[in-house]
Design a protein that fits this description.
The complex is a heterotrimer of chains A (606), B (473) and C (409).
Chain A: E1 6-11, E2 15-19, H1 25-31, E3 50-54, E4 59-61, H2 72-76, E5 79-81, E6 85-87, E7 91-94, E8 121-130, E9 137-141, E10 149-150, H3 153-160, E11 167-173, E12 176-183, E13 190-196, E14 200-207, E15 213-220, H4 230-236, H5 240-265, E16 272-279, H6 281-287, E17 307-310, H7 311-314, E18 323-326, H8 336-345, E19 354-359, E20 363-368, E21 373-378, E22 399-405, E23 412-416, E24 424-425, H9 427-440, E25 456-459, E26 462-468, E27 479-482, H10 483-506, E28 516-520, H11 521-526, H12 529-534, E29 545-550, H13 552-562, H14 564-576, E30 578-580, H15 586-595
Parallel strand pairs in A: 1-7, 10-12, 13-16, 16-18, 19-28, 21-30, 22-24, 28-29
Antiparallel strand pairs in A: 1-2, 3-5, 3-7, 4-6, 8-9, 8-11, 11-12, 13-14, 14-15, 17-18, 19-20, 20-21, 22-23, 25-26, 26-27
Chain B: H1 11-17, H2 31-39, H3 57-67, E1 73-78, E2 81-86, E3 103-109, H4 114-126, E4 128-131, E5 134-137, E6 140-144, H5 150-163, E7 168-171, H6 175-185, E8 191-195, H7 200-210, E9 214-217, H8 222-234, E10 240-243, H9 252-268, E11 279-280, H10 293-309, E12 314-317, H11 322-335, E13 348-352, E14 361-365, H12 368-380, E15 385-390, H13 397-402, H14 408-418, E16 428-431, H15 439-446, E17 449-452, H16 460-467
Chain C: H1 3-20, E1 82-85, E2 99-102, E3 121-127, H2 135-138, H3 148-157, E4 163-167, H4 180-193, E5 198-201, H5 206-219, E6 226-230, H6 232-236, H7 240-250, E7 253-257, H8 262-273, E8 281-284, H9 294-309, E9 319-322, H10 330-333, H11 343-360, E10 365-368, H12 371-385, H13 399-402
Parallel strand pairs in C: 3-4, 3-10, 4-5, 5-6, 6-7, 7-8, 8-9, 9-10
Antiparallel strand pairs in C: 1-2
The chains are: A alpha/beta (606), B alpha/beta (473), C alpha/beta (409).
């Protein structure tokens, strides 16, 4: 067979695949092993399989239009639907972040050792016996030795009529056991691990007996319609109607994840027997149907236990009796998602002091070890995800992610995601840029732009540093970092550094004593550690091994799904971790103020 | 002073300790008569008001000790909502009689949602079955802590108290949880379950603080039980209940052995450390591997029956369906009837409806159950008739027939004595179907025509409708 | 003159006067103070109880006071005779096995201080004619009701009966008045159908039964049937001798039936001793249904057993219970409101509890019908006769206190 003539370079993996003219982009991407979201399975229904291809004429439209057509703005930005597009010439294709399925498959299985699998749901053969020497029917579960399970009356008659070979699906928790249902056909049962994020909802479908991940899914959280910010949603959820709307939106998002994961695995959603969910406190309360309004107050009391409800009540397309269990929260700003991170990082199992940092929409920081832990939350804002910055954008094609500055000329050399012209800067690019600017002398030690330094010029709103001149940017406007941008970045970084400093001081831990640094999320995956230290987002931890734990919330819920021991560990962690409220802590003000400086460049880096 | 066996206590000993004023305030003509009634436990010391006076304190105490049952009587609850358990004088009922029928407590737990809990309490408290003119009912509610959570337990106890006035058992191995329950129910003097070798100090403190009876638990360990009782008594806890452990299925042999050992030790060997009421838990049938509730309820009922026969003074039960409660309540009632007195009604003539001179004449035995059953069937069928009640020594028709108490001669005597011949113009007598074999002889003895009625009085209505008035002989 | 002047005038003289006085008493004295300060030095007063903290109450032990328990093992002067039911080929009959009942040396299932001599036995009913029976009772036997041999086969084959009772009710003059020969033929058919020991029930008529039993005894010579029953009525009717002699001659056992009266039981036994060795006598003291006088049966059996153990030789016989009588109770079979379930629940439970109470009172052999009741009694017998006693798993006795017990509240 002759080699296919066309070449398609795929980002972010940098893989090259060969293709024939007319090949559907969706197929090519899938074949290459890239996880591309396509809820409808590629039939032109969901509008989720967005990709960016360049050059624009390397492809042509195929098939009918999608029900969810791309908007003109999207198309102007270069988006295409992979299931409606065929390749005709060599091209480069970028799978943007929102189309990527975020859960890194590699991390999940490592968390529960083989032989340590102890899921809350197990199946047992039903032994039913009609005996002339006794009235009624004997019902027993072969091999079951746990607490006597609750049986709903309707299920009781099902059990009495059960034929040979029927199995009972039993859910066991510390609070009691329950027979969920009786299955006629034996077969594997599955669990669903969900990360209910503010922006993205991700999930993994897991075969409970083996721990194998058989399907995944990631979608945008539909609640965004009612507010990007958490507090906006909180306010919307004050009314019963608002709460119901938000809950419904969360359920819908999870439903899409279920659909994607089950279709990938070829498994029916009926076989899912438990859901473990990790989210921040507001997200979790909304999912549970509890109004998040109390969380708006400073001293909001937060129950540090698992929250449980049933799928039927929640409104997700699983068997209605399927239990949903949410990782426990610690405070109104440190939720089950961070507890999930802690499970993933294994802080509770190590005697060595670790620092865990999760900088998403808010910044959560945990310091401690098996013996003790403290955590806090800082309003680091979305700067590290590109939000609130004039040229900020999400990490996708067209985003600058690496910056070097020539100290002589002040010229910035930018590397971007994808090819073509850059459109803006993502979080890691911003950090890189700031650090590079500082080393080149464009920033003073307070993070202010230095007038007259190479690369610094006067713009319409004050000083600005030029990263990409107008003629070389995709938007036709210069990509710069302004005074306001720098002020915002400094504020964000000072919040984080201040928070970390308070924690370290409070517990008398010197930076040299921290043995492990765990970085969660995209920040952990993509940021350059030298820049992070150099820009002073975190204090230098010279003896810390750095671990990017990816989606720690999802991994944490995965671990809890597969192991009741880890579940108990989560409850212990939540119950015994101290929450330091920076809002009322005078030490924070000082630490924050002190952190509004950039570290001396001559200080040793790791 | 060792407690004397009830059959050995002489009325004379008792008489010597009484005021001997023959004041008759007790309702007896003189003190000797009262002493006799006391020894038979037909009257209690409280019936003698003069004994309460200061001058008789010593005598009263001596009398109490002399007459006290070897198995202590323990009251659970307060005032009108109380039940007394224990107070036994003999091992086997035929040696004297049993006192204080076994209290049957229905268990509820604090994990149940409040509505379900209320419903269950109501069902249990409302259960009643009419038997021999008495109401068979449940006596107490046992609230179990399954969540281990103090607030849940307290809330559950409050819910139960709001739903019924029955005496309570509070069950948890954790004294802190019981304290929470007592905060709600302390004034009701509930039985606390239970003190064991790890928590006895706290449990004793609770019992003393709230003045509650205390159950003592040492599964299959009578030495342990005695040790706990000795220690708790040294602390001043007097109202104790023993729980030697109820083991379902094959373990029942041990259970029965322990119960028998305790009871025998208390009454025959003067072991006052074991002289306390026994608590049995047939509910254990629900804590095994069997999941079918009908099977479990059946096993529970069978276990309850065995424990009732073997000296249990309180039972904790789970099944609240009528079919499993009924035999338990029946057997409890039966065991506690005084064997010295059969349960009988007065012999004689009864009238139902408005019988005229042609109304049917029926005859039956004077065993209470027989009589009340026949009576209720007659009333249910709205019959107008005469019923002659023969004195069969309190035995049912079948027993009486078998034992020759319900005989042709007896029938003739009863009919004659009743005077029913003056009330009707006919001479036709309907005898119970179970006495069919007597019909010929009875006809001869009475001189009446004898018809054989249905075997069960529930058939009286249709029978009489069809056959009364009778055609020519 | 004011006070001061007075003192001034008296002064020096006053002092002289005072110096010589040993004691001065002032009358009508009063003292007005604006403020009075008292200084009490520490240690001025010793505590009343010598400085030790007072003991508030009685001496309370801090540790558990030790105690032992020494179980009693009473012995009894008497024991219950053993009776063999059914004879094997070697013994002159045709049964597969012979059963021994009785032998008790202590009250039943009480102190569990020695193994049971002979396990109690359950015999299943067969009726040779259709008698009115509640549906729940006859349900398992619908197909065999008209064929006693088949019925017996069903009892042994499907339900594992160790003995069968053939109730020859058709011989009742008030029912079908079947002849002794017919009765004997029925018994023969059953003897051939099954190889377990048989109990043969009459109709209760003292004359008819005597005739039937004589014929059956002769026909089944050597089989060691248990003839159910002889009564004091028969003594009065002068037919007791016939039956007893037939039993003696043909190697059978007799069931002596009296109505809840121990003196009658002893009297009847005495009469039978004239013709039959005591080892061939079983007693029926009457079983009355639960709720209908079961307590009488219970107590009389306890009394009889105790008397036997204490040496009353006239009561040292194994006892039988016709527990099927439990179905005479209306509660066993009549329709009741839903919470009382149906007769298929209540009936077997009624029969089981009737039998069980008597098991605890020492009864050695049971005549029963419903398989579910029989199952319950068998399980109870197995549990109570296990020797040595089954160990109980540690730590599970009080599971019932805190366990979630399933679907109900």
């Amino acid at each position: 067979m002759p080699t296919p003539p066309l070449k398609l370079v795929l980002h972010p993996s940098d893989r090259t695949v060969r293709a024939y003219p007319g090949d559907l982009l969706l197929d090519l991407v899938r074949e290459a092993g890239l996880a591309l979201e396509s809820v409808c399975g590629g039939v032109g229904e969901c509008g989720k399989c967005r990709v960016i291809v360049s050059p624009a004429d390397a492809v042509e439209e195929a098939g009918g239009p999608c029900r969810h057509r791309l908007s003109a703005a999207d198309r102007a930005q270069g988006y295409l639907l992979a299931c409606r597009t065929r390749l005709v010439r060599d091209a480069e294709l970028t799978v943007p972040v929102e189309s990527r399925i975020v859960a890194p498959k590699i991390l999940l299985p490592a968390l529960v050792e083989e032989g340590a699998l102890d899921p809350a749901v197990r199946t047992y053969p039903v032994a039913v016996e009609d005996d002339p020497f006794a009235i009624g029917t004997s019902i027993r579960l072969t091999g079951y030795s746990g607490a006597r399970p609750r049986i709903d009356p309707g299920l009781l008659s099902r059990l009495r009529d059960a034929e040979d070979g029927c199995i009972a699906v039993v859910h066991e928790e510390d609070g009691g056991a329950r027979i969920l249902r009786v299955e006629r056909t034996p077969g594997p049962v599955y669990g669903l691990a969900i990360d209910l994020g503010t922006t993205t909802v991700a999930g993994a479908l897991v075969e409970l007996e083996t721990g194998r991940v058989v399907g995944t899914g990631a979608v945008l959280n539909r609640q965004i319609t009612w507010g990007e910010e958490l507090l906006t949603r909180c306010a919307f959820g004050r009314t019963a109607r608002g709460l119901q709307t938000l809950r419904r939106a969360a359920a819908d998002s999870i439903s899409l994840v279920i659909r994607a994961a089950t279709s990938e695995a070829g498994v029916s959603a009926d076989r899912i027997a438990e859901v473990v969910l990790a989210g921040n406190t507001v997200m979790t309360w909304i999912a549970a149907g509890r109004s998040p309004a109390p969380l708006e107050l400073v001293d909001a009391p937060v129950d540090r236990r698992f929250i449980g409800f049933d799928a039927g009540e929640f409104g997700i397309p699983l068997r209605p009796e399927t239990p949903v269990r949410c990782l426990p929260a610690i405070s109104r700003f440190v939720g089950g998602d961070v507890v999930g991170d802690m499970l993933t990082a294994g802080i509770g199992g190590s005697d060595e002091v670790s620092l865990l940092v999760d900088l998403g929409t808010n910044g959560e920081i945990v310091l401690g070890c098996a013996e003790w832990r403290a955590c806090t939350s800082c309003a680091s804002g979305p700067a590290f995800e590109g939000g609130g910055i004039s040229s900020g954008m999400r990490a996708m094609a067209g985003a600058i992610e690496r910056v070097r500055v020539d100290p002589e000329t002040g010229a910035a050399v930018c590397e971007m995601i994808g090819s073509g012209r850059p459109r803006g800067c993502c979080g890691s690019g911003l950090i890189d840029a700031a650090y590079a600017m500082y080393r080149a002398g464009a920033l003073d030690f307070t993070g202010r732009l230095v007038e007259g330094a190479p690369g610094v010029r006067r713009g319409p709103d004050g000083l600005e540093f030029l990263l990409v001149p107008a003629e070389r940017s995709a938007t036709g406007r210069a990509i710069t970092l302004t005074e306001q941008d720098m002020a915002y970045l400094m504020d964000s970084k000072a919040a984080v550094l201040g928070a970390v400093t308070v924690l370290l001081d409070r517990y008398r831990v010197r930076p040299s004593e921290v043995r492990h640094l765990y970085l969660a999320g995209a920040f952990g995956a993509f940021a350059d550690l030298a820049s992070v230290y150099g820009f002073g987002i975190l204090p230098v931890l010279p003896n810390a091994a750095v671990h990017a734990i990816g989606n720690g919330s999802l991994s944490g819920s995965y671990a809890a799904l597969l192991s009741r021991t880890r579940r108990r560990e989560a409850a212990t962690l939540a119950g015994s971790t101290v929450y330091i409220d920076l809002l009322v802590d005078p030490a924070f003000v000082e630490a924050y103020a002190a952190a509004l400086k950039l570290p001396q460049p001559s200080r040793p880096m790791d | 002073m060792a407690k004397r066996s009830i059959t050995e206590t002489s009325p004379i000993e008792v008489y010597r300790l009484l005021p001997r004023t023959n004041c008759a305030e007790c309702g007896e003509p003189n003190c000797m008569a009262f002493a006799t009634r006391l020894v038979n436990r037909e009257l209690a010391l409280e019936a003698c008001p003069p004994l309460a006076r200061a001058e008789y304190t010593e005598a009263a105490e001596a009398l109490e000790a002399l007459l006290a049952p070897p198995v202590r009587a323990v009251r659970i609850g307060e005032g009108e909502c109380a039940v007394t358990v224990g107070g036994k004088y003999v091992v086997q009922r035929h040696e004297f009689t049993y006192h204080n029928p076994t209290a049957c407590a229905i268990a509820v737990d604090d994990a149940a949602p409040p509505d379900a809990l209320r419903q269950r309490v109501r069902t249990a408290a409302d259960f009643s079955y009419n038997y021999i003119g008495r109401d068979l009912r449940v006596d107490a509610v046992a609230v179990r802590s399954t969540t281990g959570d103090r607030d849940r337990f307290r809330a559950a106890v409050e819910t139960v108290m709001g739903e019924c006035a029955l005496p309570l058992l509070l069950c948890s191995p954790d004294p802190a949880v019981l304290r929470a329950g007592l905060e709600a129910a302390g004034s009701r003097r509930p039985l606390l379950h239970a003190a064991d070798r790890t928590n006895w100090r706290e449990m004793a403190a609770l019992a003393l603080e709230f003045g509650c009876p205390l159950a003592v638990s040492a599964p299959d360990d009578l030495a342990g039980l005695r040790s706990l009782v000795r220690t708790l008594r040294a602390w001043g806890v007097e109202d104790l209940v023993l729980d030697p452990g109820t083991f379902p299925g094959p373990g029942l042999a041990r259970t029965l052995r322990n119960f028998a050992r305790c009871r025998n030790a208390a009454i025959r060997a003067d072991d006052d450390l074991l002289g306390y009421p026994l608590l049995g838990a047939p509910i254990a049938a629900f804590a095994g591997e069997e999941l079918d509730p009908v099977r479990c309820a059946f096993d529970e009922a069978v276990t309850a029956s065995a424990l009732l026969s073997r000296y249990a003074d309180i039972l904790v039960l789970q099944g609240i369906e009528g079919w499993s409660l009924l035999p338990t309540l029946f057997w409890r009632f039966n065991l506690y009837t005084d064997p010295r007195k059969p349960v009988a009604v007065e012999a004689g003539l009864r009238e139902f409806g408005s019988p005229d001179r042609n109304a049917p004449v029926l005859i039956t035995a004077n065993y209470a159950l027989t009589y009340f059953t026949v009576e209720s069937d007659i009333k249910a069928a709205n019959l107008s008739c005469y019923l002659v009640v023969e004195d069969t020594g309190g035995l049912s028709v079948e027993s009486a027939v078998a034992g020759r108490y319900f005989s042709a001669a007896g029938i003739a005597e009863a009919v004659a004595a009743s005077g029913v011949a003056e009330r009707v113009d006919h001479r036709v007598l309907v005898i119970p179907g179970l006495a069919a074999r007597l019909s010929g002889e009875a006809a001869e003895a009475t001189g009446w025509r004898v018809l054989v009625g249905p075997k069960d009085s529930s058939g009286l209505g249709p029978y009489l409708k069809e056959r009364w008035p009778p055609g020519p002989a | 003159m004011n006070g001061r002047d007075l003192i001034g005038a008296l002064g020096p003289e006053l002092l002289v006067l005072l110096r010589s006085a040993g004691r001065i008493e002032l009358e009508g004295f009063s003292l007005e103070l604006d403020e009075l300060e008292l200084r009490i030095p520490l240690g001025a007063f010793a505590p009343a109880n010598g400085g030790l903290p007072s003991v508030a109450g009685p001496e309370r032990p801090n540790e558990l006071l030790p105690a032992e328990f020494v179980p009693e093992r009473p012995t009894y002067p008497g024991r219950v005779r053993e009776v063999a039911l059914g004879a094997t080929r070697r013994e002159g009959g045709s049964r597969g096995r012979s059963l021994t009942i009785g032998g008790a040396e202590a009250p039943a299932f009480s102190l569990f201080d020695r193994p049971v001599v002979n396990m109690p036995v359950i015999s299943m009913d067969v009726f040779d004619t259709r008698v009115p029976m509640p549906k729940a009772l006859r349900a398992p036997f619908e197909e065999v009701r008209d064929d006693p041999a088949e019925w017996a086969r069903l009892n042994v084959g499907r339900f594992g009966a160790k003995a069968v009772t053939v109730h020859l009710l058709s011989t009742d003059p008030l029912i079908r008045n079947a002849s002794p020969r017919e009765a004997a033929a029925t018994v023969e058919a059953v003897l051939q159908a099954v190889d377990v020991p048989l109990i043969i029930g009459g109709c209760g008529d003292p004359r008819k039964d005597a005739a039937v039993f004589s014929e059956v005894a002769a026909m089944a010579a050597g089989e060691r049937l248990l003839l159910n029953s002889v009564t004091l009525d028969m003594a009065t009717a002068k037919t007791l001798e016939t039956v007893a002699k037939a039993a003696a001659e043909h190697g059978h056992n007799l069931l002596a039936f009296t109505g809840l009266e121990l003196n009658d039981a002893k009297e009847l036994n005495r009469r039978i001793y004239e013709y039959l060795p005591p080892e061939r006598i079983v007693m029926d003291l009457t079983t009355v249904a639960l709720g209908y006088g079961l307590e009488y049966s219970f107590s009389i059996h306890e009394r009889a057993r105790y008397a036997a153990l204490m040496g009353d030789t006239e009561l040292q016989h194994p006892t039988i219970s016709g527990s099927t009588n439990a179905w005479a109770a209306r509660e066993a079979w009549m329709p009741m409101p839903p919470t009382y379930g149906g007769p298929e629940l209540r009936g077997p439970l009624w029969e089981a509890e009737t039998a069980l109470s008597l098991l605890l009172a020492g009864v050695d052999i049971f005549m029963m019908s419903h398989p579910a009741a029989i199952g319950a009694l068998r399980r109870m017998i197995d549990a109570l006769c296990a020797w040595p006693l089954e160990e109980v798993p540690e730590g599970h006795a009080n599971d019932w206190v805190t366990a979630r017990l399933g679907g109900e509240a």
